[in-house]
């Protein structure tokens, strides 16, 4: 689902699906339009999902991640031990846009 124009509403739908699903092992929502609200929804779902092994949420166009949303992501790892790979970066995309 990388680069498909996903927004916070889409992130909420994905979060609802992930909270109830135990067969998905990889989630890539890189390069979309997800901001802090969507990150909160995804983080809460990741706490409940035991099947995901790798997650990447990087390069959200024109959005920054709030400190609170970043803390929610960190909290995932107190609850979920199945995720062994996690990519999370908002700053890189912001610098790339600022340079254009």
Please tell me about this protein's structure.
The chain is an alpha/beta fold and 100 residues long. Helices cover 48% and strands 13% of the residues. The protein contains four helices and three strands. It has helices spanning 8-20, 36-48, 67-79, 91-99, and strands spanning 26-28, 54-58, 85-89. A three-stranded parallel β-sheet has the order 1-2-3. α1 runs parallel beside α2 (36-48) and α2 (36-48) packs parallel to α3 (67-79). It is globular and about 30 Å long. The chain starts with 7 loop residues before the first helix and ends with a helix. The model is unreliable at 92-100 (pLDDT under 50).
Distance between the termini: 25 Å
What count of helical segments does DSSP give?
A: 4
Gyration radius, rounded: 13 Å
- Provide the structure class: alpha/beta
Could you spell the SSE succession in H and E letters? HEHEHEH
Q: Indicate the overall shape.
A: globular
Q: Which consecutive residue ranges, at least 5 long each, have pLDDT under 50? A: 92-100
* Overall mean confidence score, pLDDT: 80
Q: Largest sheet at a glance?
A: 3 strands, parallel
Give the strand order of the largest sheet, numbering strands 1, 2, ... along the chain. Answer: 1-2-3
Please report the total strand number as a whole number.
3
Proportion of helical residues: 40-55%
Give the DSSP E fraction (strand runs of 2 or more residues).
5-15%
């Amino acid at each position: 689902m990388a680069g498909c124009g996903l927004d916070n509403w889409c992130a909420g739908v994905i979060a609802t699906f992930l909270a109830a699903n135990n067969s998905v092992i990889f989630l890539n929502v890189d390069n979309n339009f997800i901001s802090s609200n969507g990150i909160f929804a995804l983080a809460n779902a990741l706490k409940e999902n035991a099947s995901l092994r790798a997650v990447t949420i990087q390069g959200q166009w024109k959005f920054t991640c709030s400190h609170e949303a970043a803390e929610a992501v960190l909290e995932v790892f107190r609850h979920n031990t199945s995720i062994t790979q996690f990519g999370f970066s908002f700053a890189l995309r912001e610098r790339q846009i600022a340079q254009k």
